[in-house]
Amino acid sequence: MSWVDVPEGSDFPIENLPFGIFRPRDEEPRVGVRIGDHVVDVAAAGIEPDLAARPSLNALMASGHGGAVRERVAELLTGPERPDVVHPIADVQVLMPIDVVDYIDFYSSIHHATNLGRILRPDSEPLLPNWRQLPVAYHGRARTVVVSGTPVERPAGLVADASGTGRLTPTRALDIELEVGFLVGGQPAARIEPDHADRHVFGVVLLNDWSARDIQGFEYQPLGPHLAKSFATTISPWVVTLEALRPYLVEPPAQEPPPDPYLRAALPWAVDLELRVELNGTPITATNFSHMYWTFAQQLAHLTVNGAPAGSGDLFGSGTVSGPTKGERGSLIELTWRGAEPLTLDDGSTRTFLEDGDTVTVRGWCGGGDRPRIGFGEATGTIVPTPEAP
Amino acid sequence: MSWVDVPEGSDFPIENLPFGIFRPRDEEPRVGVRIGDHVVDVAAAGIEPDLAARPSLNALMASGHGGAVRERVAELLTGPERPDVVHPIADVQVLMPIDVVDYIDFYSSIHHATNLGRILRPDSEPLLPNWRQLPVAYHGRARTVVVSGTPVERPAGLVADASGTGRLTPTRALDIELEVGFLVGGQPAARIEPDHADRHVFGVVLLNDWSARDIQGFEYQPLGPHLAKSFATTISPWVVTLEALRPYLVEPPAQEPPPDPYLRAALPWAVDLELRVELNGTPITATNFSHMYWTFAQQLAHLTVNGAPAGSGDLFGSGTVSGPTKGERGSLIELTWRGAEPLTLDDGSTRTFLEDGDTVTVRGWCGGGDRPRIGFGEATGTIVPTPEAP
Predict the structure, then answer these.
(1) Which CATH number fits domain B102-384: 3.40.50.300, 3.40.50.261, 3.90.850.10, 1.20.1290.10?
(2) Of these four, A163, A340, B94, B356, which has the most CB atoms within 10 Å of its CB?
(3) Which residues of B are less than 8 Å from A221 in CB distance?
(4) By C-alpha distance, which of B54, B45, B53 is closest to B72?
(5) What is the ipTM of this complex?
(6) Which residues of chain B have a pLDDT value below 70?
(7) How far is B227 from chain A (nearest CA, A)?
(8) What string of H, E and C letters represents the secondary structure of B266-280?
(9) Do A157 and B306 touch (CB under 8 A)?
(10) Which listed residue (B65, B87, B111, B112) is catalytic?
(11) Cβ A308–B155 below 8 Å, yes or no?
(12) pTM higher than 0.95, yes or no?
């Protein structure tokens, strides 16, 4: 056991030890490891200070030394007490953990893609012919990936009026997308095999891909979403290592038809990860990440199969996680069936899409009960109004 | 006149002075300014060494001091001789000039978009309803933007067979896209007005957005191109400043219908920039950038109107530049009308799409004749085969 006291039910027991970036009072940002309600200052502990006395995890992720650093932190926490290298979480600022090099977002929940197909193209097959053959994805804006707690400004963009003319307006259809994000580590590598995913994925975060459905509807043909999704993507600050998640890797759903050989894996790469979303404190979604049709291992194989390398600092999102039932839907457009079935919150108010002042919080964890709880903390954001024109 | 001799017809007279990154023999990469067939070592000349002794232009671009540095280099070149701070271009390595933060690619030539619409959707209106209302764009992969001269590996991806099943194959439809790239400088800023574009655009490069048309056809619905364009984007190494281009800014074509007010400019933001493409030395395209429907000023306004900031290190591409006539088309899919009209090269061989070993070179310049020639050098790349599976 650790000499740092870990509260009952904490997301961050000694089995977890996720990495993040924090700033102690009046000092420079640096690498920390979370334990219970405390943060270990890795550089101050003398563990790889060249990699740890930095304002992002990128160098540590690139080095391939993350596993060794985590083991040394575990030894530190179970050896002689070193209160001088540990800070209460309340005394530090928790910051954006990485410099995102590229942000790629997938679309890999069959339940989400089917729901969207039914809502947007009610007269066609909900899944397009390519959907079961490759994990569909697009690139997002790396610069606007922000850490949990950052306010999210309501975006403006062109939305069609009754005549089909686009008018600049703050979005009236601001939505969430419940996702899981994967951070790539190591040197850039191409043509990664799915069963080598654990050599290249450094860690995992919760992700909310905020989306403006009305802006998206007007702009997205023929090259995909742009302004509808480029304004903000929120991630949780503590990067849970794949090593910590290994006991919770499970078999994914069967794929029919079987995918092309470059997408086939022998090992189980689904993650038994419980996910929850609250809107102003009211639970609105409870699902599990293991429902995903395409695994993160297949996604990584896909995004590098053309020869484009992935390496330290790349972030890819799973795509919206929706499960098979109504209460497991990961976006408001699905939960309210594009506004036809508003949600009622605990305070009696109703929502179709988000209002200014609304707070959305994503939480997630593996295990619990008899097994160690490997938690992710939270990814939260509050909507602030579009600024007035100057 | 400069004490560095500038050859007749050079792209780089004293009126140009573009920025780049170079490595003198056995030394670290640093900022250079090109003049004729020489490079000025800015840090060695004592000009803002904190910004110039760096391996990318990002810090200089962020600082807002680019204009002042360029003026001091011009003074240096017209003052007492300082051969100690100038290298012949043949003695140095010219490197990738920037760390790309985000790469956004537009689709703003009406001739290109109309050609593509006719080729891909022959039974519909060639332009989609949103095309004249906003500059359509998508995000590309920042990590794979490479400098001129970098070999381009033929990408592989799923391509539909006769039954519609995707099969992994090296692309058989490797294409070019003749574009102009814009580098953003300064601190991150949102909601940029088109007429303030010159406060935010640091400089301009040539850009070739290599594309795999068959992979694109299979993957792009509904979220846009991904692997078809993520493998490589080539830029020219010398960043021509907007200051140098100012005499060549001209009125863009009239826009009908007039765009939303956030996209309206009073100043002329088209660029009278001649563009050429050669394939294995055979000229295949000659056009001018002033044909573009949407200007770079409108593109910058668009990509920030939702509140997403743009700042130092962001790169946006104009979209394929095609002019109104057949010889002005900026991609092979247009030049060969999707393979129906192969090109004949000077060696008698024919091409629909690119073969392994082919070299594509993009060149561009403003002025010439009676006016100073503000040239861009070249953006070139040679196709190498897809690696064999291990």
Answers:
(1) 3.90.850.10
(2) B94
(3) 128, 130
(4) B45
(5) 0.96
(6) 390
(7) 6
(8) CCCCEECCEEEEEEC
(9) yes
(10) B112
(11) yes
(12) yes
